Amino acid sequence: MGFPIERRAEHGVGTHHKRHALLLNGKSQPSRPLGHGYPSAFQCFRTASIAEDAVADAVRSAKFNGYAPTVGILPARRAIAESLSQELPYKLSADNVYLTLGCAQAIEVILAVLARPNANILLSRPGYPYYAARAAYSHLEFRHFDLLPEKGWEVDLDRVEALADENTVAMVIVNPGNPCGNVFTYQHLKKIVDCIKGFQNISSDPATFIQFHKSLREPPRIFFSKIVEILKEAADICYDTIMEIPCMTCPSKPEGSMFVMVKLNVSLLEGIDDDVDFCVKLAKEESVIVLPGVTVGLKNWLRITFAIEPSLLKQGLGRIKAFYQRRAKKIQ
């Protein structure tokens, strides 16, 4: 089942963010957060005014200020069903929609439903650690299959076949990928389904976590087009700069989400033991935060977030390059 739960807590994402925050306390140089997945903190990613107005109007209406059903209020579920139905060959109803407070609660609800004696769940490595923590809490055994960096982070299907059995109740597929930034092709997704359909009751329904933070009846297409362009620019900046740093290798340019996984060659660095040591000293010396790969299951890798202002991203990556140049081992 991987790390014991106390070890997983020790290596958790939040633990490293708190440690880095303490290291940055009192620093004169402004920090550059390339480890947090919080784009809304930056002006260029601020949500569209139509969404802000919709929330304000809902509060002022006094129609939704009391307790809501656990599945979400009916008007919201109906609006989501209508929006999703536009791109489907069949029509969804409000009863097909279950609203949660973000993906964390969705994970909690689903794993609580799936939990039963002797059941197991298949999780990707690297992957979001909350799945494993919540599975352990629900007394679900979790088994890790690898994502293959040399194949664009595709699923290791041979490993999945070896892990799955009659007690496998779910396989988690995150697409677009966090933390890898990959997007699976239709052909690869079909191979995944073919691989596990003998073990699981595969549903063709669009059972997925979808984050809605906009007016569903009037989606601001211009807003989302702008966000996509900013993320594309940031992904290019991130990939191109990383390729200029000898101690780092990026298997592929990110295609989706706002993250990229980078392999760290500590043998080229002086006084750096591993990915955690790299991140701690980078935060201390350069006020730049990146996430050590061990927190998502890959030792001596880094997860870099590029969903910040492009100008700040360039500064942060420039400091990482300077850190390498200062720490690079001298060739004898």
UniProtKB/TrEMBL annotation:
Pfam families: Aminotran_1_2. InterPro entries: Aminotransferase_I/II_large, PyrdxlP-dep_Trfase, PyrdxlP-dep_Trfase_major, PyrdxlP-dep_Trfase_small. Residues 54-197, 216-320 form the Aminotransferase class I/classII large domain. CDD domains: AAT_like. Gene3D superfamilies: Aspartate Aminotransferase, domain 1, Type I PLP-dependent aspartate aminotransferase-like (Major domain). PANTHER family: TYROSINE AMINOTRANSFERASE. This is Aminotransferase class I/classII large domain-containing protein.
